[in-house]
Amino acid sequence: MENNTSLQQQLLEAGVHFGHLKKKWNPKMLPYIFAEKKGIHIIDLNKTVDHLQEAAAAVKQIAKSGKKIMFVATKKQAKEIVSECAKRVNMPYATERWLGGMLTNFNTVRKSVKKMQSIEKMLADGSAESLTKKERLTLSRDKEKMEKVLGGIAQLGRLPAALFLVDIGVEHIALAEAKRLGITTFGMVDTNCDPNKVDFAVPANDDATKSIAIITNYIVAAIAEGLAERQASKDDDESEESNNENEAKARRLEAEAQAEAGRGGRRAPASADGAAPKRRTTTGTRRPAAGK
């Protein structure tokens, strides 16, 4: 990761420091506001850097543990950026619409995902050919609708360990569901929001595409590092396990060889004609009785 000065400069160039109009501010954002300029609050980028690095360290550990971080951004300017970032690290995302109950009613949502996958399979393997043209068209339309909303969570088999939200005000339903289930939350928090509503608040402009892109990419880079370390650790474990198996096999073969050698050392030698020698009896020549 970059040093703080370099990162701060990048955030400045991306306009991360531009907040909302003063009249729209949330007083709880006061600790993160540097100044006011022309009626607009300016976010303190020193605070942004600190909180961004803290959030990045946390998501890295979550990814390293093998758990999922779900990205949520339904704002028009954030959709494409966030979906592409999430795909890069194979993480789930919701960028079209947040279905009420996507987390709190996860089992029902999973049924919808399975239905979507079933339709995809029917259309792909040709089994839908037996249907009428109208029925196939209906299936295709249903699949497209479900794909739009559920495509980002198709591979999510269980609840994610964390949520990353671009605008906690817009994504308030997702945030409420996560809090209800005790799921860790990360969020870009602008000057019009309450930073206390998320576990890891990153004070930043959540409206500008450049700002959204730089913050999201930083978080994704940390996730990628966590995944890489997890894979490296897994490779080391497999290598160590393989070495242990080889060592155990070598010890077992050595023990077998020593046992075989021990048995061979105790065996009596064969006679010249190859026959085993006769066993010696323990009774000797009887001594004649006295007086005879």
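the 2nd protein, sequnce then structure:
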Amino acid sequence: MATTHYRSCSLCEATCGVAIDVDGDQVVAVRGDDADPFSRGYICPKATALADLHHDPDRLRHPMMREGTSWRELGWDDAFDLVARRLRAVRAAHGPDAIAVYQGNPTVHNLGLLMHGQVFLRKLGTRNASSATSVDQLPHMLAALSMFGDQLLMAVPDIDRTEHMLVLGANPVVSNGSLMTAPDVKGRLKAIRARGGTITVIDPRRTETAEIADRHLFIRPGTDPAFLLSMLHVLYAEGLVRLGAVAGFTDGLDELGRIAARYAPEATAAATGIAAADVRAVARAFAAAPRAVLYGRIGVCTQELGGLAAWLCYAVNVVTGRLDSPGGLMFTTPAVDLLPLARRVGFDGGHARWTSRVSGLPEFGGELPVVTLPEEIETPGDGQVRALITSAGNPVLSAPGGPRLEQLLPQLDFMVSVDPYLNETTRFAHVILPPTSSLEQSHYDVALAGFSVRNVAKYSPPLFERGPDQRHDWEIFAELAARWYAPGGPLGKLAVRAARRALLALAPEVVLELGLRAGPHGLKKGKDGLSLAKLRAAPHGVDLGALEPRLPGRLNTPDHRVKLVPAIYVADLARLDRRLAEWVAPRAADALLLVGRRHLRSNNSWLHNSARLVKGKPRCTLLIHPRDAATRGIADGDPVRLASRTGAVVAPAELSDQMMPGVVSLPHGWGHGRPGTRTQVANAHPGVSANDLTDTGFVDLLSGTAALTGVEVTVERAAAVRDSAHTGRDDDRAGAAASSPP
């Protein structure tokens, strides 16, 4: 007989409540939890993948060691000893910076990885640590650090109370929100219009979000800072600046006005593609709305001037009185306060305290940009990377320069991956340490609750007990830490046992209990305060109320004031001025600009091994405007060769007037079917990797974030294709690297 279990889906930022029916050791159904106070029964198609991932025959269950081109299982103790010994040897011979770390974004969905994983990975002492942050939200984190005093103080749109939402470089209907934890974003957006509000979307593609908006404007990829400065120009010139509640503790208002005065809409229209009259209309409507919010996301961050763009998104909200105001941009009051917890496990705030050895890109929060990884592996000298640890990440597909990384990973002295799959990256590891599935783990969204549009808390116990020969992520890192920090010699084994007991005693639930009691809804509320026991007794979750004003108390700047115009952004305006002149100059006749996109059934590369999520017509297609296709003799469905300065791929064309003329779109996370991987479903639906085209040298120099938006490419009809799916890589050098044994 089936039993029903309630938990939060951990596959994206929406944290939807799910009801999972289990019969014995089998998941028989996954549906929305109608009693969840936050998601209220909504789920997206990805939720079914919780079952697919758990039952996936390709998922690794035991440690694996590579021997040449073959793999064999290894016992856990032998695997831990081997990894610790090999990493120690690299450090002893070449120093701490010879070990690099890469963490993928599933880390933020995993309580154990946020606890024990960070204690180990961030305490190794290497400067060559990186993560998905630098191909995602880093510019927002830099703005939060510079303006509010902490990299995690990223305010979120109060979407449930706003009356005017301006969406820039984001597609929340498909992403389910991002840095905006909000189940059923589509329903919440429709509710804005139902209560008489409006939605405006500015994007190089008429996205799924734009389809339900009141207005959509095309913008040339990468020109967001120019548009935002022109919007600020209008706000200042027409006397529409109103700081509201933050006026008493905000510095830099007049300085920002002097900067904006240089960027009239007429001066930026040719670059952005947005007419001056439209800029003025957008600014006036935003200022006039009683409650409004500007939400900028991935397209804002992953561009050549992403640092400036993210800062200016915050600045527009501040000068119109939207910061810390209901219906505007607000800070959460999560049950577990992430800020002090993050500092304890190694998330320290800082920017440009050192730079990368080769290209001189700045450190942020203790990490270097992931674009530095290939050059740090291939460049000899002190600090050259000779060993790599990857955790929940697949940088061959998710980071720029994938083919280059494929060539370099086999050259490492040692590589270990904590990952459940033999994928495009882990196939090069010497050892793979596979964790349990998410349904075998307890769950609490300690990170994502910090960006929730409503204050909620929910704990989910495991659905299935882990097997005796399985390990959770946090147990893997606890064991590695025990061996790493224990002394050698006769006392070594005793020290390892003592360290193991101490670390394993700090199970995620122990840390969670402490965090709940110390948090704003905990002990200070007396007997009504939250505890883990109360969350266990509320399987659908607990509603803690709407977002509340939190400033100036939440600020962490030295004087607890908002810094509206940090000096780093003023200095970076010179880059914008140079690019403005270049944007209006004639381009090569055949040049197009590449942007990415997401799909509701996809989330990075790791969900492509779910047959239910990849079924149907191919989704890894190149969207191209009919006019651009016609000038190149391309018909709908034709295979086309898409080439950049760094590589080329072949993909089917999909003609669409959703695209801004001169712009094409390829989705993120594909590129499977490479030799040495064991993901049968994904390999049968390979697609192509957009990061075979992106460039490790095309970055936002201020933040170090990879510029994935606005890559210049050429497109032509392919004369021949290599497989029946009419997709593939078209770079001989990269193809040779992929086919060589790991």
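Confidence is low (pLDDT under 50) at residues 720-727, 731-742. The domain at 64-135+338-449+472-512 is CATH 3.40.50.740 (Rossmann fold).
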